[in-house]
Amino acid sequence: MQVFVLLYNAGTENEGIHTLKIGDRNVVLMFETEDDATRYAMMLEAQDFGSPDVEGLEAEEVEEFCQSAGYESKLVPDGSLAVPPDANVDNPDWQPDAAPPELSEPGTSASEKPEFSNSELDRIRRQLEGLL
User: Fold this and answer.
1) CB contact at 8 A, 4 and 55
2) Which pLDDT belongs to residue 93?
3) How far apart (Å, rounded) are the C-alpha atoms in residues 118 and 76?
4) Confidence (pLDDT) at 108
5) pTM of structure
6) Beta strands of the chain (E only): which ranges?
7) Which residues pair with 29 in a beta bridge?
8) Which of 26, 52, 58 shows the shortest CA–CA distance to 40?
9) Within 13 Å of residue 20, how many CA atoms lie on the same side as its CB?
């Protein structure tokens, strides 16, 4: 099954995938339709999150990537109105202008990840529950 994900710097050595940060987890959204993914990408751009490219990939391939990177995946069904969060992570793991990272063990990081307040976690939880 083909799904659509949002990539930054697609096709380059510094490619990054859009994720939602929920607590200490990174969640990759897999859209069933290109239209829903494009709409979400446009909302991200309107909120100054950057301008991701919509790329069609096999769901199995995305899930394998997520497992190897320590991420989770979430299927966004056709017609769901997924809405990006109001705030961006202060220090994302990926930098759009950075040199390609050196290979390291999945899930390792040199810096601590920022934490969300309880109210922010509740808001994100409600948004994700709305996707179900």
Assistant:
1) yes
2) 52
3) 25
4) 45
5) 0.64
6) 2-8, 16-17, 19-22, 25-31, 53-58, 72-76
7) 74
8) 52
9) 25
Instruction: Determine the Cα–Cα distance for residues 83 and 63; give it in Å rounded to an integer.
Output: 22
Distance CA 95, CA 25 (A): 18
The pLDDT score that the predictor gives to residue 80 is 82
pLDDT-flagged residues of the chain (< 70)? 86-116, 127-132
Q: Work out the number of other CB atoms within 10 angstroms of the CB of residue 52.
A: 22
For residues 46 and 118, give the distance between their C-alpha atoms in angstroms, rounded to a whole number. 26
Two structure tokens written together for 77? 């069904």
Helices within the chain (DSSP H only): 34-46, 59-69, 118-131
